[in-house]
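Signal peptidase I structure dump, as promised
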Amino acid sequence: MPILTAAVLAAFAGYAGAWYLGFVEGNFALLLFLATVVTGAYWVAERFWFLPQRRRVAEGVAVQAQERRTQLAAQGITQVDGPDVEQTRQKLLMQPWWLDWTAGLFPVIVAVFVLRSFLFEPFKIPSGSMIPTLLVGDLILVNKFTYGLRLPVLNTRITDGTPPTRGDVMVFRYPPKPSLDYIKRVVGVPGDEIAYLNKRLTVNGQPVPRQPMSDFFDEDSMRYSRQFAESLGSKSYRVLNDDDRPAFIPGAEDFPYKENCRYSVEGVVCKVPPGHYFMMGDNRDNSLDSRFWGFVPDRNIVGKAFLIWMNFGDLGRIGSFE
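structure tokens r here:
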């Protein structure tokens, strides 16, 4: 068992190392699931096989020591030399290293697995597509049950939950490459007609209300952008526009239901198909979103983003957001 366990741990370490170095495309959900299964198997084996075996051996040592003392006492010998029986017993009961690194870690791993898979999952914002709502480096939490619980790895929904609504900030699997997680704002739900023409958002023929605000200064790019307060459904948030960027959508890819979209020099108009959502970043002219790669199917939904739990460069950003 020690050799087998060493091989299993080496395989996990090798996969993690290859992922970190970029040799393989990692899947943390799958890695965590396998770690839960493997450590769980060791935990069951420890509880019902290995620990009872060690207890029998330890009790056997104690019984033998007691029998020896009884025999010597019958011969009038009361001072008995030899190893401390209790210390020997405790050493025999201790988990060997290969169980300590498997069965011993199972309670922690299964707790992380349950929390991450069914309750809340942490993410780090890697790009500026959601500025000013979310900044690069924000550490956020995503609610995994609001839109319905999903099976880990398979992402198959097992409860209905509440459907995404316009204005929600949602994490989803990037349709062209589902191994990547993206975060954008829901601007269109199934059946909506979304128009983004001349940098104005319209939903079902109704312009989305917005009010101009003072310009936003991006410290990373050292540039000012026009800033607006926008309201979509019950959500109020801020969006940015870059006057130097054109209104038309350059380089739109082929994607399922592209025939539902009409592109022009003014922008794009799309009819959202059933079971799909239209996503846009709040940094409107610096966001690779549904305007470029299409609709997000329901099966790609990960969860609803709702809280910044840490930003090491600005602790004042901690809190909820819309």
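The helical segments are 2-21, 28-74, 85-93, 97-100, 106-119, 290-293.
lmk if u need the other ones
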